[in-house]
Design brief:
about 400 residues, alpha+beta, Ubiquitin-like (UB roll), six-stranded mixed β-sheet, globular
C-alpha cells in the first residue's frame, strides 16, 4: 500500500497528541487588538531540535535556546512579537527570564523551554507585561489554542500560518503540526521567520535534527522575499512520542523516511504560505530548475532567479521579460551552459515557452500576460544538463513593500 499523508489546513501545533497552546495580548504591543505572547506546552518531555539564522548578528533568544537544546530535550515554547530582543545589552538575561517565567507557570524546568522573539531590532524588551500576562496565558492553554498562538507571533503578516499532516507509523496514527510567522526580511538561509513544529512521533533527538536539517535545506533555505537575512529566525521541532510507534533511532529505517516525507510536506506548505504573504506581495512565485548537473547547481540557480529584483518586479507587472531570468542564472556563479537552457512561465491559465536553447522564441504576449496575471506563478527553467532539480520560493516586489518598510519602526 502506498504511503499516505493527509493534510489538514485547519491544523496546527495542538493537532498532535499531548500538546496545548495559547496566545494573548499582554501589552508588549500598543495595539490591544494584536496578540503578542504565546505559549506551547507538551504534557510530557520531548525530544527536540532547532535550526537558526546564519546571520552573525542574532537575537538573544537564539543564544538561550541553543543552550537549552544542548541535551536535545524540551517541553515548552514561549515567544513574543513586537520586540525582537536583539542587539540589547541585557537581551540574554531577559530571554532567560522568559524561560524562567514559562517554567514558573507551567511546572517545567527552565532548561526545557525554547524561547523566541520577533519584531523591532535594538529596542529593549520590557518583562513586566510578560510577567503580568503569564497567569492568563498559562490558564488558557488548551488543545484548541493553536490558532491563538499563531496569531500571537504575527508582525507584518496578513494571515495566520498553520498546518498539520497525518500519517501512519507502525499502523498507528501520527501527526505533525506547525505554526509560523514571516512576511518580510526573508532570504535564503532563514530570515525574519519563526516556525514551531510539534509531533507525537517517537523519534530520537539526533534523528529529529537530521530530518529537520534535510527539510529546511530544501524548503526554508530556498525562500526569499526581499534579500535581507534577519537575526532571530528559528525553526524548532518537539516530539513527545505519544503516537507510541517503535522509536525511530536510525536514519536508514523505513519509519525515518516516512517521517521525513511528512515533515517535508509540512515545511513545503509553510514556506509557500510565507512566500505568498511576503510584505506587499500580490503573487506567489516559484522557480523550478530541472535537469541540473548537481543538486547544488539546481538550488543555486533557483535561488538566484527568485531573489532577483528585476524578475520580481516583472512578475508584479505580469511582464514576460524572460531575459531577466537568464541574467539571474548567469550571475548565479554556477557551471551552466546557456545554449541548453529552456524557460517557460506556468500558472493556472497554462504554460508558455519563452526561451529555448538560451535564445528567444516567438510567443504570444497576450497569452503570456494572461498566465502572469494569476496570483501563483512558476518559472520553469530546464538546464538540460543532468538529473537534479530544486525549487525556490518567493513573491513579486511591489510598491506596497516600500510603504510597509518605510515606516515599520515608527
Amino acid at each position: 500500500m502506498a504511503f499516505s499523508i493527509k493534510i489538514d489546513t485547519n491544523g496546527g501545533v495542538t493537532s498532535p497528541k499531548g500538546f496545548k497552546a495559547n496566545g494573548i495580548h499582554c501589552g508588549i504591543r500598543k495595539n490591544k487588538d494584536k496578540k503578542d505572547l504565546m505559549l506551547i506546552l507538551s504534557e510530557t518531555e520531548c525530544d527536540a531540535a532547532a535550526v537558526y539564522t546564519k546571520n552573525l548578528v542574532y537575537g538573544a533568544p537564539i543564544t538561550v535556546t541553543r543552550k537549552n537544546l544542548e541535551n536535545g530535550k524540551a517541553r515548552a515554547v514561549i515567544c513574543n512579537s513586537g520586540i525582537a530582543n536583539t542587539c540589547n545589552a541585557d537581551g540574554v538575561e531577559k530571554a532567560q527570564a522568559m524561560c524562567d517565567l514559562a517554567a514558573e507557570y507551567t511546572g517545567v524546568s527552565p532548561r526545557d523551554v525554547i524561547v523566541g522573539s520577533t519584531g523591532v531590532i535594538g529596542q529593549p524588551i520590557d518583562l513586566e507585561p510578560i510577567q503580568n500576562g503569564m497567569q492568563e496565558l498559562a490558564d488558557g492553554l488548551s488543545a484548541n489554542g493553536s490558532d491563538a498562538a499563531a496569531e500571537a507571533i504575527m508582525t507584518t503578516d496578513t494571515i495566520k500560518k498553520h498546518i498539520s499532516v497525518s500519517f501512519d507509523l507502525d499502523g498507528k496514527p501520527c501527526t505533525i503540526g506547525a505554526i509560523a510567522k514571516g512576511s518580510g526580511m526573508i532570504h535564503p538561509n532563514m530570515a525574519t521567520m519563526l516556525s514551531f513544529i510539534t509531533t507525537d512521533a517517537n523519534i530520537t533527538a539526533a534523528c529529529l535534527k537530521s530530518a529537520l536539517l534535510w527539510c529546511v535545506e530544501r524548503t526554508y533555505n530556498m525562500l526569499s522575499v526581499d534579500g535581507d537575512t534577519s537575526t532571530n529566525d528559528t525553526v524548532a521541532i518537539l516530539a513527545n512520542g505519544l503516537c507510541e510507534n517503535s522509536r525511530i533511532e536510525n536514519t536508514d529505517s523505513e519509519n525515518y523516511q516516512k517521517f521525513c516525507r511528512a515533515l517535508y510536506k509540512i515545511c513545503n506548505y509553510v514556506v509557500c504560505m510565507l512566500a505568498k504573504d511576503g510584505e506587499g506581495a500580490t503573487k506567489l512565485v516559484l522557480c523550478e530548475v530541472n535537469h541540473a548537473k548537481t543538486e547544488e547547481i539546481a538550488k543555486t540557480c533557483a535561488k538566484s532567479v527568485i531573489r532577483s529584483p528585476l524578475v520580481k518586479t516583472a512578475m508584479f507587472g505580469s511582464d514576460a521579460n524572460w531575459g531577466r531570468v537568464l541574467c539571474a542564472l548567469g550571475y548565479a556563479g554556477t557551471e551552466i551552459d546557456v545554449t541548453k537552457i529552456d524557460v517557460s512561465f506556468v500558472s493556472a491559465k497554462g504554460e508558455i515557452f519563452v526561451c529555448r536553447n538560451g535564445a528567444g522564441i516567438e510567443f504570444s504576449e497576450e497569452k503570456a500576460k494572461e498566465i502572469l496575471l494569476e496570483d501563483e506563478i512558476t518559472i520553469q527553467v530546464d538546464l538540460n544538463d543532468g538529473e537534479f532539480a530544486a525549487t525556490a520560493y518567493g513573491c513579486d516586489l511591489t510598491y506596497e513593500y516600500v510603504k510597509i518598510n518605510g515606516d515599520y519602526r515608527t
